[in-house]
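Internal QA ticket QA-208
Title: Verify multi-chain structure generation after dependency bump
Assignee: T.L.

Test input:
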Amino acid sequence: MADLRSSLRVTIARDADVVAARQRGRAVAAEVGLSRPDQALLATAISELARNVVNYAGRGEALIEAVSQVGRRGVLVTVSDNGPGIDNIEAALSDGFSTGGSLGLGLPGARRIVDEFDIESKPGEGVRVRILKWA
Amino acid sequence: MPETPILAHSGVLIASIQSALSDSEILSLRSQLLARISHKSVRGVVIDVSALDVLDSFATRTLNELASGARLRGAQTVVVGIQPDVALSMVLLGLTLRDAETALDLDAALGLLESAAGRRDG
Ligand SMILES: Nc1ncnc2c1ncn2[C@@H]1O[C@H](COP(=O)(O)OP(=O)(O)OP(=O)(O)O)[C@@H](O)[C@H]1O
Ligand SMILES: [Mg+2]
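Actual output:
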């Protein structure tokens, strides 16, 4: 998506890590120069993705990277796990779809509040979601 | 992480969240508040979330559960101090606090509960 600058890895294994991941993401977003509303949006998206890791895969990680591309800067966050994966990605991305008896807003909501969103998953091989927000 | 202090003041419970809460801490706050509502006669619950820089789907769902549980016991819930950036994220995410009232600050929240009590009694 963009050239790499610096990176930070956060292990996600329990609910306190969800808070840690979004706080780290927000700190990098502030350094990179995202506006305060954009910092909040990125932190919220990270929170949703990291919680999915805890809930559905048990364990994974968030890689937070400051990136730059033709003069603009941004934050790229890759949240990945080796859990059961998602059978039907299209369904998982639609509002209200949940296998966890929840609101089903995490993935579609996160997608709405970032600039770039990309998800890859094969059943049995985990999930990788990449989100990017430009300053 | 500091516990969320809960004050009781003439039938109103006031919980002021001090810093970011994990999911289990939010659940524990919800349980503590619901337990106190069922013990004493409580007409209102005020939750100050101004220290939170994220209110995501889980936090919002838990606040809604608290508010609907409180309502079954005749108590009204007011969420106070949602930061503007947080409000924007919630709207874009599609989250609503349908079971709780909202107010800008503690005074406004207490005023809201007073006028609700007035309507009920008078
Ligand atoms: N990392 C993951 N591993 C496996 N399945 C996942 C993962 N993330 C999401 N899913 C699947 O996609 C569905 C939709 O996820 P989404 O975050 O949108 O909603 P939810 O987690 O069910 O509810 P909410 O996030 O609103 O509390 C989940 O119910 C789950 O079935
Ligand atoms: Mg989710």
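Spot checks passed. The mean pLDDT of chain B is 93.
Status: verified.
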